[in-house]
Amino acid sequence: MSILVTGGAGFIGSNFVLDWLARSDETVINLDLLTYAGNLQNLESLEGDNRHVFVRGDIGDQTLVAKLLEEHKPRAVLNFAAESHVDRSILGPGEFIQTNIVGTFNLLESVRAYWSNLGANEKDAFRFLHVSTDEVYGTLEPNDPAFTEDHRYAPNSPYSASKAASDHLVRSYLHTYGLPVLTTNCSNNYGPYHFPEKLIPLVIHNALAGKPLPIYGDGQQVRDWLYVTDHCSAIRRVLESGECGETYNVGGWNEKANLEVVHTLCAILDELKPKADGASYSEQITYVKDRPGHDRRYAIDARKLERELGWTPSETFESGIRKTVEWYLANQDWVANVTSGHYREWVEAQYS
Length: 352
Ligand code: NAD
Ligand code: DAU
What we know:
This protein is of the alpha/beta class. The chain has a domain at about 1-190 and about 225-250 and about 295-315: Rossmann fold (3-Layer(aba) Sandwich), CATH 3.40.50. Helix content is about 45%, strand content about 15%. It contains 13 helices and 12 strands. The strands form 3 sheets. Strands 3-2-1-4-5-6-10 form a 7-stranded parallel sheet, with helices on both faces. It has a 3-stranded mixed sheet with strand order 7-9-11. Strand 1 (about 1-5), helix 1 and strand 2 (about 25-30) form a beta-alpha-beta unit. The relative contact order is 0.13. It binds nicotinamide-adenine-dinucleotide and 2'deoxy-thymidine-5'-diphospho-alpha-D-glucose. Nicotinamide-adenine-dinucleotide (NAD) binds near residues 6, 7, 82 and 163.
């Protein structure tokens, strides 16, 4: 038996592959284009492990995907592959449309063709699990209840709009063709292998480099943080027992304002890696121009996943954020590798 994971060299995908193979001997076929966000170093510990088959390629390449499906006959496809950074989608939305919408469409077509030709039992057991985001629901006012699965879609960035479009396509393949699909909509993840363009790893990286810690606008935007391995366990649970056609919100009940998150990171760094001059890293906090169309608040109501599938997160924000800082301090080589070249050009374009 095997599963096909797309985007398994990225932040969440690589954590998922590592976690999966730590718990199971079921082979993972890992299809990843290795864009700037994909990094085989994340999977170094699997070198020589024949339960992991890495293939560099595009989810939109129907010939390649058909070949992989025929060759490995996976019992499930899990779609993590995407362009994932909101700021990049504002500077250049084209790639988001291409991968997140057109790519997902092509992947669905390849999977539909493969699934249609399976025997009755394999057809019933097959699953297509689409990994999506809470950003498809848009933004909340301070006192609004958290997003449930019934919240209307109201995406506000090219990234979230492209993810919303992919969610709709996935849904339509169940209703039109009967393809057994599942969708998860998760809140902000953090943890090891998080690319340092996103708030938490960027702040750790800049703090240690003595650079400004950029806070967009007033820093009072709220995100609902989930440690990445809790996201992975939720996906495994949904794959195992989720009901076809259902969507499941995944979140950690950890709403925090950005400024609070940055102060927490600075306090942990002050303790674990004090600056030579005794100053706090928080002195590097710098307010910068706000993100256009910046969503003010996200919050996930994860009660359906708990009620129906018995999933709850294992990390608190306090335990997860400390582990994360410790991981970055212990893995400065990884950070140095991913922050060379294209990364520098991106930071230049984004913050100049
Ligand atoms: P990421 O940007 O770190 O990784 C994306 C991966 O997809 C990379 O390895 C990249 O090389 C690969 N990829 C990109 N285009 C591809 C293509 N056309 N074909 C094959 N591979 C391609 O993203 P992430 O943060 O790990 O997010 C993974 C998924 O989870 C995405 O679908 C994202 O929308 C969703 N999500 C992310 C978060 C979060 O907080 N990071 C929260 C909820 C949902
Ligand atoms: O909610 C889930 C989403 O979370 C995922 O779908 C996305 O793929 C993921 O990137 C993330 O989106 P955000 O835009 O919330 O994450 P980001 O880390 O970019 O920003 C978190 C918050 O911090 C957001 O309010 C913007 C702010 N921010 C971000 C950066 C990079 C800053 O204030 N300064 C910064 O330099």
